[in-house]
Amino acid sequence: MGNHAVREQHRRLVARNRLRTLFGRDTARIRACVLTYRNTDDCLLGRCDGARYMSYMLQERPTLAGVAALRDPLTPDSPLWAWATEAIGSRAEHMLDHLEGVEAGEDIESVHDMRVGSRRLVAAMKVFASCFPERAYQLLLKEARRVTRSLGGVRDFDVLIDHYGRLRPQADAEEAPAIDYFVSLRRRDRDRARKPMLADLRKLDQSHFPARLRKYLRREAEAYAVGLGPEAGLGAGAGRPFRAAAPGFLEQRHAELYEFEPYVARPEAAEQLHEMRIAAKWLRYTMELFAPAYADGLREPLGAVKKVQELLGDLHDSDIRLWTLQEMVEEALDPRGLKALRGVAPRLVTGGLRRLLERETAVRAGCYQAFYKEWLKLERKAFRQESLARIGRADAPA
User: What would the pLDDT profile of 292-307 be if each residue is shown by its tens digit?
Assistant: First the structure.
């Protein structure tokens, strides 16, 4: 046997002995770890470069805390990477729970629920990206974001169709034909948007995205547990206790929300208020991820941020309707929409669209006032200072 082969055999034996030290008599765990990391050049311990392998081999003692993080229930003092793998995995499963309903296309809430699930998955993957700096992770994130965009394209039309469907029984004789015309066109748009959405979902299924994501998370968790997680650069903080990491993530999202405060008193700043809604959404999702690090689960600040997001969401929905109606009033009527009205005079549709535009202008003003009043109420409560102080104290019991 050559010298190289002897060295390789020795490395494998050292690696297996270290696993036995870490896992004791748990042969199933040892076997799972070995099967997870099938690269024999790295002693069956994972896809790592020489520096990661040597940093592991030169440790004075095994990473018993890492093994415990795999075996024991999560606590606020568990490492950040353990919470990251659990959060991402559970959110991926929740998103896929709605896949059959979306493909059937019978209930618009299925698209809504899967879109929310995909957004929560993307949020978790982005928040915890520092734990997984590899390119493979970025590719998985890219796939998840593509699904979110595809679902969003259909959901936006669902929201418009549902809004005017509920308005139709209350509409007067002048508005009714315009609503029917509007809904007819938006249904065509929705049917057209479903085709790329279903193609993306088929691609997600055929590429075995859930299995690949689970495999990646399992591999990285095992690597962290035995000391082979990234030790420098973006992954340097992955071993921090969950509670120690929470304030930094939340303070960053909190600051991003308040960057848009100068636009609160400017109702005409539709684009900036939309960006503020997105910032509120990210703060909310990040609060939900780190709520277990806090004794009260951040109940009050989370509720306040959720309400701000919803009010800004109502405002944005109204802006979308307003912009859509303005375009329809300025452009020539679409013959495909008129065909669905069965002989209604075009002038009646044009007049009805103008009436809907007037109505929506008033609705938009009401949405802005509701948001502005809520923001002033939070200011009177010193919400900015109080919420910032609260997220700085990760006080959940061990």
Answer: 999 999 999 999 999 9
CA nearest to 93, candidates 124, 72, 63, 51:
124
Residue 79 β-bridge partners: 241
pTM score of the predicted model: 0.80
Residues whose CB is less than 8 angstroms from the CB of residue 136 and which lie 6 or more positions away in sequence, other chains included: 216
Closest among 191, 158, 189, 164 to 178, alpha carbons compared: 164
Give the number of other Cβ atoms within 10 Å of residue 365's Cβ.
12
Contacts of 177 (CB under 8 A, 6+ apart): 341, 344, 348, 349, 352
Alpha-carbon distance 199 to 214, whole Å?
A: 22
> Please, which residues bridge with residue 241 across strands?
79
- Kindly report, residue by residue over 38-86, the tens digit of the pLDDT: 433 333 343 333 333 333 333 333 344 444 455 568 899 999 999 999 9
Give the burial class of 228: count Cβ atoms within 10 A of its Cβ; 0-12 exposed, 13-18 middle, 19 or more buried: buried
One DSSP character per residue, 22-70 reads: HHTT-HHHHHHHHHH---GGGTTS-S--HHHHHHHHT-SS--HHHHHHH
Residue 228 sits at the vertex; the CA angle it makes with 224 and 231, to the nearest 5 degrees, is 90
Do 36 and 218 meet the contact criterion of CB atoms below 8 Å apart?
yes
Among candidate residues 167, 168, 157, 147, the one with its CA nearest the CA of residue 108: 157
The number of CA neighbours under 13 Å toward the Cβ of 57 is 17
